[in-house]
Specification:
With 203 residues, the protein is of the alpha+beta class. Helices cover 30% and strands 24% of the residues.
Length: 203
């Protein structure tokens, strides 16, 4: 809009200032949307890291009481608001723990255990799978690239990795940006596959 002494205000076009104001407003709105999404992702990852710490603390208390961790082949949190109810029942966790998104694509918690040696006692080592949206610390574990801090799929072994060939044996599937996991045959005989998740400690 322009002002002409002869014709007054006219609408023949936009001034440079008007265009700059519009561009500034659009940029501001776009940055708000972008950063708000990033903050939400970081907040969810903070919950995941906190849950991992809480879970490992609870599992340590469980082991002190029973001498081993709750044996399990594989427990996934997808669709389950509290996959670790057996720890709540034993009063080593005070409440439910599940991924903030928990839809399995790929965001979920997965829990399993390993033996120290073939034929040994189940529940000697805890294996926890968790996925992060932003750069986060993989407690007691590592990401697909071998780093302890990163984005994507984190594999944790507690209190230490099983004594087998390459316990972190990753198969990088091009269709899966987070990578998929394939356990090596020497580790498979240590995995407590087929256990029900509550062996020894009960429900």
């Amino acid at each position: 809009m322009r002002y002409d002494k002869k014709h007054g205000w006219t609408t023949t076009g936009f001034t440079l200032i008007e265009i700059l104001v519009v561009v500034f407003i659009i940029s501001l709105l776009a940055s708000i949307v972008f950063f708000s999404g990033d903050y939400r992702a970081r907040a969810r990852d903070f919950v995941r890291t906190s849950d991992m710490d809480t879970l490992f603390t609870g599992l340590t208390m469980y082991k002190l009481q029973y001498g081993f961790f709750p044996c399990s082949g594989f427990i996934q949190s997808t669709g389950d608001p509290n996959p670790f109810q057996f720890l709540v029942n034993k009063e080593v966790l005070t409440g439910a723990l599940s991924d903030p998104i928990n839809d399995g694509s790929p965001y979920q918690y997965a829990y399993s255990t390993f033996k120290e040696a073939p034929g040994g006692r189940c529940g000697a080592i805890v294996h926890l799978d968790i996925d992060f949206e932003t750069e986060s610390e993989c407690l007691y574990g590592q990401f697909a690239d071998g780093s302890t801090k990163g984005i994507g799929h984190c594999h944790s072994f507690f209190p230490h990795p099983p004594k087998c060939v390459n316990p972190w044996h990753f198969v990088n599937d091009p269709s899966d940006p987070n990578g998929s996991y394939d356990i090596s045959s020497s580790c498979e005989e240590l995995w407590d596959i087929g256990e029900n998740g509550m062996t020894g400690g009960g429900t």
